Amino acid sequence: MRKKTNSTAKNSDKSNQGKRSSLPYIAFLTLLFVALISLKTLTKDKTGNQSPTLPAPDLSEVDSMLIKAIKVAEQRVKGTPSNARFWGELGITYWANELDEPGRKCIQKAQEIDPENGKWIYYRALTFLPQNTEAAIPLVEKAADILDEQSYAPRLRLANILSEESLLDRAKPHYEKILHSYPDNPMAKLGLGRLAMAKGNTEEAIKHFEECKDHENTKKTANSALATLYLRADKAVLADTAQQAAEAIEGDVQWQDPYLREASRFKFGLTAWLDSAGKLVRRGQYTSALPIIDKIITNYPDEGKAYIYLAKIKLAAHQYKEAEQALVSALSYEPDSVEARVQLGVALMWQKRFKESISTLNKAIEQSPNLPEAHYNLGLSLASNNNLQKAADAFSTAIKLKPALPDSYIRLATVFLRAGQQREAKATLEKALNIAPRHPRIISMLKQLQ
Fold first, then answer.
1. C-alpha span between 25 and 93 (Å, rounded)
2. Counting CB atoms within 10 angstroms of each CB, which of 98, 268, 270, 293 has the fewest?
3. Domains delineated in the chain
4. Are 305 and 274 in contact (CB under 8 A)?
5. Contact 342, 371 (CB under 8 A)
6. CB 398 within 8 A of CB 375
7. Cα–Cα separations (whole angstroms), residue 34 to 28, 37, 418
8. CB within 8 Å of 446: residues ≥ 6 apart
């Protein structure tokens, strides 16, 4: 019995030793399993999605300030991948600085996380504009339905897009809906006036334009339209009054979309500076624009747009040689810039280098055949170089492309008079009078031909 007991004890000892030797292996497997579960948990956000996959566009030629802003926005997304605002702001940072594709992807992610927030739907729609209105329209419409109580901007943009796409019947109810909530909205009244005018409803169009003719956002456009409509209605006195009001205004104050205004704070470096400089140049605030343009050229010497802005300021100051130099620089960096080529043609013309001007403007027209400014300035250079027939052709083309520009008619009539074609000159001026009934030069030239 003792031997049997000893044998049993030995077997028991061996069994216990086996169990003890397997414990470290089991512990290792347990720790490995826990680590894998933890790792999987760490790579998920609060919604259970995998860690964020961020866009990876080529930033090799992007402004360093913008790269820094993108990195900061990316860190916010990585820290809280389930936060729609962080995704949206990363997307707007891309889009506001002309990186549309990565911007659209990030904004779409914000929309997926927060699908009832109309702001992200609207920004996503904006990333498709102006190139892809077909993709933008349903998104803008959805955003407008959500955001109506906060802002009329999405619905106004929707109505304007539909109007520009000649979808007049679809545009009208959106303008009317804006006026239901915002009865004094001048942009909606202007839109309805344009629709009525396009459909030939003169009295209805006059009513809408009269209601917005005194607002800073619509004053010039509305009065110009009224001048044409009153002429159609044989109301010459009212037409003269409207035309005079339109000519007294340099331009309508641009309507500000609050969502675009919000996006502008995400512009960095070159994009922000160009945006500011462009606005100042368009407003004629050259003194304020020059320091910004100088800063752009110093930091980004190969940015052609800055030289174009500089040239416009030099042309306004009659510094034609300096304007030419700036435009030559612009074309060296952006050889396909039609704008720079047209402006160069103008600078050469003012220096009486007509053959060079004509050649330059013809190249611009080859690039962009439907640009009225190019044909108009070509006409000026040709007339100055005594090539009257070609000048007449150029001014005629400018009129065809932009019928509402009185100067083209005046220049064409002047060419006809120089060529001894009084009948053609008179007919041209009479057409111009329909466009600008109170234009003093047109009236004066017609009196001389009586």
1. 52
2. 98
3. 64-247 (1.25.40.10), 268-335 (1.25.40.10), 363-450 (1.25.40.10)
4. yes
5. yes
6. yes
7. 10, 5, 94
8. 426, 429, 430, 433
